Amino acid sequence: MMDVDVAANLKSVIERIRKAELRSGRNPGSVKLVAVTKKVPVESITKVINEGISDLGENRVQELIKKQEQLPDVKWHLIGSLQTNKVKYVLGKTVLIHSLDRWRLAETISRMAVKKGLTADVLVQVNVSGEETKHGLLPEEVEDFVSEAVKLPGLNIKGLMTMAPFVDNPEEVRPIFKELYKIKQKLAAKWPGIRLLSMGMTNDFEIAVEEGADLVRIGSAIFRGNTG
Ligand SMILES: *Cc1c(COP(=O)(O)O)cnc(C)c1O
Predict the structure, then answer these.
(1) How far apart are the first and last CA of the chain?
(2) Spacing, Cα 36 to ligand 1 middle (Å)
(3) Domain 6-223 - what CATH class?
(4) Which residue has its alpha carbon closest to ligand 1 atom 12?
(5) How many A from CA of 217 to the centre of ligand 1?
(6) Could you report the per-residue pLDDT of 55-95, keeping only the tens digit for each?
(7) Contacts of 215 (CB under 8 A, 6+ apart)
(8) In the chain, what percentage of residues exceed pLDDT 90?
(9) Domain residues of the chain, as ranges?
(10) Segment (H or E) for 215
(11) What's residue 133's pLDDT?
(12) CB of residue 33 inside a 6 A radius of ligand 1
């Protein structure tokens, strides 16, 4: 990996988030930055922790568990797709699972959480763009899914997550973020516990902030210096 100034990259990302918050009339600091550490060595991760980052995201269970053993004092988010046979490894180890995308996974998380005497905080992943390669429920499936999933005792649905398609001009994905926001508002009217939106990555996080993201998941802009 090239020599990159992780602390400087992080500062610039935080600055860009602040500006997007202000532009859209949101309170500075209302968006939480989840630093995505996939394929990033622990030495680089330590640099962002030293700069005050408290929340880290991994998309693979094995990598999350390994890094958590070395960095136990931060909050870990699972952001990638989760196999049911790996649920037992992440329960109690993560503050939030961003990728609940099917019924069997909901049942499994709930059953195992109950067995461990805890409730798992989760986001429902929505495939707003409808791309076949993407995980997540289709927008029209979300409400039925949620109305069943809120009955599961070991599950606490905190909001929604989406991944926008990668495009050259991030303005193109604004409608996707707007749509997710609309779906969330509709759900929140019925189930007030549903209030978080996880959306926005290196390529599109400023647009996501402007459209109401509560959590942005950013990797490359911090650890590789991509400007997005
Ligand atoms: C890798 C990843 C991110 C971060 O992507 P960058 O473009 O590196 O910022 C965010 N969310 C998910 C689900 C990811 O897998």
Answers:
(1) 18
(2) 6
(3) alpha beta
(4) 79
(5) 6
(6) 999 999 999 999 999 999 999 999 999 999 999 999 999 99
(7) 31, 32, 33, 34, 55, 77, 98, 196, 197, 198, 199
(8) 93
(9) 6-223
(10) strand 215-218
(11) 82
(12) no
